[in-house]
Amino acid sequence: MKRAAAxxxxxxxxxxxxxxxxxxxxxxxxxxxxxxxxxxxxGHERIxxxxxxxKPLGELWWHLYLxxxxxxxxxxxxxxxxxxxxxxxxxxxxxxxxSVRLVIxxxxxxELWPAQFDKAxxxxxxxxxxxxxxxxxxxxxxxxxxxxxxxxLPEVVERTxxxxxxxxxxxWFPKLAKLNGDGSFAHCxxxxxxxxxxxFGRYDVTMRVPxxxxxxxxxxxxxxxxxxxRRVIRHxxxxxxxxxxxxxxxxxFLERTVSxxxxxxxxxxxxxxxxxxELDTAAVALDEFSTWYSPYPYKVLSVVHPPSGxxxxxxxxxxxxxxxxxxxxxxxxxxxxxxxxVHELGHQWFYGLLASNEFESPFLDEGFxxxxxxxxxxxxxxxxxxxxxxxxxxxxxxxxxxxSADSVSHRPVATRADRFASGSDYGALVYGRTSAxxxxxxxxxxxxxxxxxxRTYGGRFAFEHPVPADIEGVxxxxxxxxxxxxxxxxxxDQGWVDFELVRLACDTKHEAHGYVGxxxxxxxxxxxxxxxxxxxSLVRAERRGTLALPSEVEVTxxxxxxxxxxxxxxxxxFEREFEAATxxxxxxxxxxxxxxxxxxxSNDTRATEAGKAPFFSGxxxxxxxxxxxxxxxxxx
Length: 636
Known about the structure:
With 636 residues, this protein is α+β, with helices and mostly antiparallel strands. Helix content is 25%, strand content 33%. The chain folds into three domains: 23-199, Immunoglobulin-like; 362-492, Neutral Protease, domain 2; 497-635, Immunoglobulin-like (Sandwich). It has eleven helices and 34 strands. The chain is elongated, with a radius of gyration of 30 Å.
């Protein structure tokens, strides 16, 4: 799709009626006051929903996510096995419901809290709360919920909270769980490895902070004023499924308008160079992702770079708002600034527009987004997309493949978030393995066809909640049944593949030894009279594992000539004889390294003595492998 076409499609989306997409939309109007001294929130919500499901609603499930940080016995902390967000806190946080009143039609408000609170059904940590309804909300009926709440922010943990005067206010308001079409709620406690899932809707949020503070928030600014020493800022955004904001009295700003979209980077003093890199990355990637997947439908994108000391607020995504991270001294050859920026930006699609259930199928979110990150980084920095200092060059996509190699046998990629035994397995399989699988499919079955499949997926399921069967169906119709089967096996069945060049042999073909010819032409050839005729080389490779991927074998002859031969996906072995004036000196499976999920690269090549690489070239390969392994370990 040409850039002009992408811009036209974006204009169409921006002009379309607000709230016209998700049939089960839930709208929020919120007024919240942030006390930056005590780090407390006092808020009021008006929630509007129409029961578009097929059944009466006899209950409401709520997420009170800040309760994950109330103490060290919550589901979040008990489920942690180390890594980010695992440390014991000095200052904790919580969300407390004060009042929940239900209004149906013209009826008088009915107080539901705490009278209808179902303590037995709710989670012990109160991140997942059930409130029964005294009378059901029938299909087609409109209901209004009037909610008063109080929240205490924790010191920054797992992307929310405060550090000094900096406040990252995320997962902060009482929120209805995702309402499904069958009348059920997709609810679960806030687990360490899972994130968030909700209906689309319109958010109208008024935030009140000290006058000296600036705010960066989801959506477009509709109003700003100062009242009694407080800055009052209102943001409105339709067709999103969450709302977050950052408040700080030391923000610096960079801004640029690209294709009608306003991109704002908010960053700490002294981080100008890093903020410029983030703005440059976001400006290019936003346009390209709009072409690759589906048009970005919002008029604003905000990027928040948290200050030093609150790094855990970085590396996270919310609708129209992302947080990044990195030291102000980060050199350009270390591309972590660009990598984090483009990764979090990619979540505007894989989490944002394609709002899959990350608890049930985290690979649809983090895995597909890691692929999008690696593809963009490769397009813009080639084999130095993770690191590039002179001859030391490391590719992001290779790091992702290497980081997941040891975890393939542990459990399927398509494992529910709370069933991963460790954070390393979660990261390796959900992020790295999924990305390596998708990159392999793109290389093996063709970039044009694969990119068309991703555009189909993005366009067909934007503003919906796709499940694994949806992307499988797109792959089947676009890439073909074989590719779809490879994807399914790799994701659900711990599918693996290992190509091995098992034999490379060369003999000399002589004149026949013994009687040759017929009748009077018959003569006997003695062994000491044999003359060499030609060299005969045998090349044999075998494919082990369950992924039936097609490949190629490259053969290099003694005179330097190279030829490539296809290896069909239904053949377990490749075997071929070559007659030539010289022996085959080297043979390699998958010479272009299309199959990133190959279990071992070290057995893909065989060479005769004449075909072996010089000593220093061999050392270079060993060093490169060591560097890839080291970076994979660090990233995990």
